[in-house]
Model the fold of this input.
Amino acid sequence: MVSWTDICRWDPSEIALVARRFTEAAHSLTVGIENLEWELQRLDWSGDAGGAAKADLRRAIAENQASARQLEYVGQCVADTTDRMYPIRAVVRECESTSTDNTMPIDQDGAVTDGLTSYATGAEDAWDAARSRMRMLRELEASVAEVIRRASEIDTEAASRLRSAVAPEPFTPSAPVATASSTSPGLAAANATWWDLLTRSERTSILVDDPGSIGNLDGIPADVRDAANRRMLVSERDRLEQVAEDLESTLQANVFGGLFDNADAGLEQTLKRIAALDEIADVLDEGHRQLLVLDNSSATDTLAAIAVGNVHTASHVAVFVPGLDSEVGADVRRYDGDMDSLRSTVQQLVPPTETVACVTWMDYQAPQLGWSLFDPRRTVMSPLAAATGAPRLRSFLDGLDAARSQDPHLTLLGHSYGSLTAALALRGADTTGVDDMVALGSPGLGFDNVERLSVPPGHLFVAETRDDLVADTGLFGADPSEIDGVRPLATRSGGDHADSHGHSEYLSEGTVTQQNVALVVSGRTEAVY
Done:
C-alpha cells in the first residue's frame, strides 16, 4: 500500500511525459524495422555470406518487433495509469487545502488530527462551530482513506502489468466497483471521494452498465443518482412485468391457485410494486424532479426519495419524512405536491439569487395499519420501524452535504411517526449537517431532552394543532411541545393564512403552519410565530 506522502509526490504530468517517451521510442523502432524490412527485400546477395546476412536481418527484425511491442505496451500502461492519477491528484490538493486552511494535519499514513484545542467564537455559536469542525474532520478522514485505497489499487494493478515479462493484450484498467451504501460514519464522504477519483470513462461505464450500484449511493452527486435511478426505473418495471407474467402462468396452470406456492400473494405484491413505479414515473413527469432513491429489494414495498428542485445546487434543502400508513404507491404523489407547494412558498421568502429544493424521503418501511399492527417490525406501537429507518435517513442527509462543495442550509421535517424517525436519525449524530428540524403532529421524539439531538440550540421546532389527537398521545416520550428548548410554531392564524386542523393539514397550501415551516426552511427562524 502506498502512503499519503507517496501519493502527494505523484505528478501525473511528469509521468505522462515518460509514457509519451516510451510511445515515441516504440514508433522510432517501428520505423527502423520498416527500413530493415525494405533493405531485406531489396538485398540481392547470393551465397553463404548473403544467406547469413539475411538471417541476421530477419532475427534483428523479429527482436526489434518484440521490443517495439513491449515499449508500446509499457507506454500504454503508463499512460492509462496516468489518466487514473489525475483525479487523485485533484482530490489530494483539495484534502491538503482543507488540512492547511483548518489546521488539521495529515500524517504520512493518512491519519488526520485536529490541531485546534479551542475555537475563537462566541458562546452562542460554540456548539455549531464544534459540530461543523467535527464533521469536517470526519469527512477529511474518510476522503484521505479513500484516496489511499484507490491509489494503492491503481499502483498494485500497474505494477503487476509492468512486471509482465511478455506484453499481453493491450492494457485495460479493471472496472471500478461501487461499494454498497452503508450507515457507517463517514461513508457518504468516502463515496463522494470515490466518485471524484474516477475518470470520466469509468463514471460513464458504471452509469451505463451498472446504474443500480450508484443510484442509492449516498454522497454521489444528485444528478448522477437521478440518471442512474431513472434507468433502473425502466429496467425494474420491465423485470417486474415479466415476473407478473410468470406468476400468472403459474396460477393458471395450478388447479389449486396459489394455495401451495403463494403465487397469488407474489402476483399481488408484484403488481403493487409496478403500480408504485408508475406513480414515481408520473411524479417525475411533472418536471424539475430528481429520483434520489429507488429501492425495490430492501423492504416489502417499493422505497423511494424524490426531490423537487436540484438538491446539488440549492441554497436551501428540506427533507420531509412521512409517517404512519405512508406508502410510495399510494402517497408519493400527494407528498410531492406538498413539497412542490412548500418549495414555491420558500422561494418567495428568499432572494432571487437563492434556490430551494424539497425532498420527499420514503426510504424506510413506515408502520402500517391493518394486520401490520401485529407485526413488531411495522406496528405503529413500536419504535422499531423508526429505529430501522433512522440510519438510512442519517446516511442520506450526510450524503447531501458530502456530494457538494458547499453545504446547503438543511432542514429536516418529520410528520407524525416520521418525526420519531427523523429524531432518531439526529440522536447522537454529531457530524450531521442538519441546521433545523421541524416535528409536525409528533407522538414523541424518543427523548425528553433536546441536548440529545444533534441540532443547534434553538433550532428544534414543533407544530401541533389543537385537535390533533395523535400529537397528544405521548407514545414515544414526552409531548414535544412541552420539552424545554423546543420552539412552537403557530397552527392558528388570525391573519392572512388559514388555520391548520387535525393531523394532516400541517403542510397544506396557504396555512399558517406551512408559512412557518417555509420560514424555517428559508433560514428566517427569527420570523416564525
